[in-house]
Specification:
Structural class: alpha/beta
Number of domains: 1
Protein name: Aminodeoxyfutalosine deaminase
Number of strands: 9
Number of helices: 16
Domain Adenosine deaminase: 22-345
CATH architecture: Alpha-Beta Barrel
Shape: globular
Order of helices and strands: HEHHHHEHHEHEHEEHEHEHHEHHH
Pathway: Quinol/quinone metabolism; menaquinone biosynthesis
Bound molecules: ligand V47, zinc ion
GO molecular function, one term: hydrolase activity, acting on carbon-nitrogen (but not peptide) bonds, in cyclic amidines
Strand order of the largest sheet: 1-2-3-4-5
Distance between the termini: 38 Å
CATH class: Alpha Beta
CATH superfamily: Metal-dependent hydrolases
Catalytic activity: 6-amino-6-deoxyfutalosine + H2O + H(+) = futalosine + NH4(+)
Largest sheet: 5 strands, parallel
Length: 353
């Protein structure tokens, strides 16, 4: 069961504050955000799938023995996304769930290679995510932008395909802002992806690879030097290398921290052992994210509650965390200004109650 994953110990009134706090989310996966209801609905459409159709049974199905097991389960959910309509439904519903948590802006990581190789036509895939993005902004006020990531374990074929989809002027979607690298890190050295990141950066995309999630700080160094990372997905093992922490702090390179994800995938043993405190002590810019919330039995608000407990934050500390994410985002300056002002207004009103 996943109760142990969601931290019940943050004070109740801070949870109420968090629930209303305007937020931005930078590290959250498209398929990984499919709610139990959506996954169950898609599983019912495709009876050949091994994914449970009952949301209750899904909770056990989303309990992982290790990272490799997590990827196996993740891909079984990817297999459920078979038509452009599945893509549109999933994307719009993910935005609805975000809006319920006062997420004003999110950079959603999508792995187009995994869907196009399973038969979804490229242009139809792009149209589906763009339709959902525009509908979500109109209906919920939530601004979505896309990060396209390479599933690294699928190798250079996946890298080439993902780069083509991200840089072809006819195909690349209007909402695309960044380029990433996901999947297992073990046995997937980062330097081999340099040519692809060079092409993506030359096309105006921002570099945000996962690194240091299940491998050591050298993977984070590789992401910085070879892939010119502007932010690091997880970067959990950076705490093992004081020089790396100092570098991240000095160059204001944000970490996309996903506390419960690291516990669920067994990358970190317990929340109390999570290195997030080392990051803040070293002056590293920390952002809080949920990664694959329903799969980890959490959501963004719960991750802010975890951060409040681990970093001993009050309302102003939580507001600063939220503003870190806005500042580290690739939103335009006007959009950043609006959300930061909203965070300040909300926090002042809350404290003046
Ligand atoms: N915490 C995470 N840490 C890392 N990644 C995460 C995390 N959460 C979600 N992902 C996503 O999982 C995908 C994994 C897909 C993958 O490994 C793979 C391997 C072989 C073939 C294929 C295929 O499609 O044929 C795909 C990544 O693209 C990434 O976006
Ligand atoms: Zn991730």
């Amino acid at each position: 069961m996943t109760e142990h994953l969601v931290d019940p110990r943050a004070p109740r009134d801070l949870k109420a504050f968090i629930a209303g706090l305007p937020k931005a989310e930078l590290h959250v996966h498209h398929v990984g955000s499919a709610s139990p209801r959506i996954v169950a609905e898609l599983a019912a459409r495709h009876p050949d799938s091994k994914v449970p159709t009952d949301p209750e049974a899904l909770v056990d199905y989303f309990t992982f023995t290790d990272f490799a097991h997590f990827i196996e389960v993740y891909l079984s959910v990817v297999d459920l996304i078979r038509t452009p309509d599945d893509v549109r439904l999933l994307t719009y519903e993910v935005a609805r769930d975000m809006a319920r948590q006062q997420v004003r802006y999110a950079e959603l990581t999508i792995t187009p290679f995994s869907s196009t190789r399973r038969g979804i036509e490229e242009q139809a895939f792009m149209d589906a995510i763009e339709d959902a993005r525009k509908a979500a902004e109109a209906d919920f006020g939530t601004v979505l932008r896309w990060c396209f990531d390479i599933p690294g374990e699928a190798g250079l074929e996946a890298a080439e395909e993902t780069t083509r989809l991200a840089t072809d002027d006819k195909l690349r979607p209007e909402g695309l802002v960044s380029f990433g690298l996901g999947g297992p890190e073990i046995g997937v050295p980062r330097p081999q992806f340099k040519p692809y990141f060079d092409r993506a950066i030359a096309a105006g995309l921002r570099s945000v690879p996962h690194a240091g999630e299940t491998t050591g700080p050298e993977t984070v160094w590789d992401a910085l030097t070879h892939l010119r990372a502007e932010r690091i997905g997880h970067g959990t093992s950076s705490a093992q290398d004081p020089k790396l922490l100092a570098h991240l702090a000095e160059h204001r390179i944000p970490l996309e921290v996903c506390p419960t994800s690291n516990i669920a995938t067994r990358a970190v043993r317990t929340l109390d052992e999570h290195p997030i405190k080392e990051f803040t002590r070293a002056g590293v810019l920390v952002t809080i994210n949920s990664d694959d919330p329903p799969m980890f039995g959490t959501d963004l608000n719960s991750e802010y509650a975890v951060a409040a407990r681990l970093l001993d934050l009050d309302e102003r500390g939580l507001a600063d965390l939220a503003k870190n994410a806005v500042e580290a985002s690739f939103h335009d300056e006007a959009g950043k200004g609006r959300i930061k002002a909203e965070i300040d207004t909300y926090t002042s009103a809350w404290l003046a109650r």
